[in-house]
Write a structure and sequence with these properties.
- There is one protein chain.
- By secondary structure, this protein is α+β, with helices and mostly antiparallel strands.
- It has one domain.
- It has helices at about 50-60, 65-75; strands at about 5, 15, 20-25, 30-35, 40-50.
- The chain has a three-stranded antiparallel sheet with strand order 4-3-5. Strands 1-2 form a two-stranded antiparallel ribbon.
- Strand 3 (about 20-25) and strand 4 form a beta hairpin.
- The longest helix has 10 residues, at about 50-60.
- Bound molecules: zinc ion.
- Zinc ion binds near residues 10, 48, 49 and 52.
């Protein structure tokens, strides 16, 4: 059974049309990386939409405003992907 993937930052559903970008979260400095630096411990990979992934990679951190919105949106399952 295919699970629904969501962007970890904005909560948008990632369909086959939106190929998720996997970013790895470092347990060492709590930042996201495309490729985790050598010597960092990994907390695992998270799925992001491509736009969000680019944004996250700039700073290595989530945009907490977007994340907050996503959490509110997750209460009702009617996200329409644009
Ligand atoms: Zn997103």
């Amino acid at each position: 059974m295919a699970e629904t993937k969501r962007c970890y930052q904005c909560g948008r559903k990632l369909t086959d049309k939106h190929i998720p970008t996997k970013l790895e979260l470092s347990n060492t400095n709590n930042k996201f990386y495309e490729y985790i630096p050598e010597g960092h411990l990994s907390q695992g990979c998270f799925n992001f939409g491509s736009t969000c992934a680019k944004r996250v990679l700039k700073t290595g951190e989530l945009d907490y405003k977007a994340k907050h919105k996503a959490e509110m949106r997750l209460d009702w399952d009617g996200i329409s992907g644009t």
